[in-house]
Design a protein that fits this description.
The protein has 139 residues and is of the alpha+beta class. InterPro entries: HINT, Histidine_triad_HIT, HIT-like, HIT-like_sf. Keywords: Methyltransferase, Transferase. Its EC number is 2.1.1.-.
Length: 139
């Protein structure tokens, strides 16, 4: 059997607090509970992350997100919700089975901090980078 902890949860070898399951996707509470109701949504197919995911698996996974996000927000009475996905260790991925975090937010002063820096944009540099990325998309 695969040593992946999420594969073991999917197989029922490790207990979890399931909130949703169908033939393609499993959602369960994260044991870390960054905030109460922190839920992980995983494809049942073992795939490392979005970078290695097929379009079919991505569609199966993402199509469940709105329903699950609404359920988590409603059940927890959260004021909002972050949907977060980390790809590779440098980006914070610690379990190498694709998963989406649904993190309820109750107060803008909670301990979770996600920040974006603001600075004057270099539109020429942005245009060049956008073109480089667009070329990769069509490659």
């Amino acid at each position: 059997m695969d040593s992946c902890i999420f594969c073991k949860i999917i197989a029922g070898e490790i207990p979890s607090s399931k909130v949703y399951e169908d033939d393609k996707v499993l959602a369960f509470l994260d044991i870390s509970q960054t905030t109460p109701g922190h839920t992980l949504v995983v494809p049942k197919e073992h795939v490392r992350n979005v970078l290695e995911m097929s379009e079919k698996t991505a569609l199966e996974l993402s199509s469940r997100l709105p329903k699950l996000a609404r359920a988590v927000k409603s059940a927890t009475n959260a004021k909002g919700l972050n949907i977060l996905n980390n790809n590779e260790e440098v980006a914070g991925q610690s379990v190498f089975h694709a998963h989406i975090h649904l993190i309820p937010r109750y107060d803008s002063n909670d301990e979770l901090s996600i920040t974006f820096t603001e600075h004057e944009p270099d539109f020429d540099a942005l245009a060049k980078l956008a073109q480089k990325i667009a070329n990769e998309v069509t490659a």
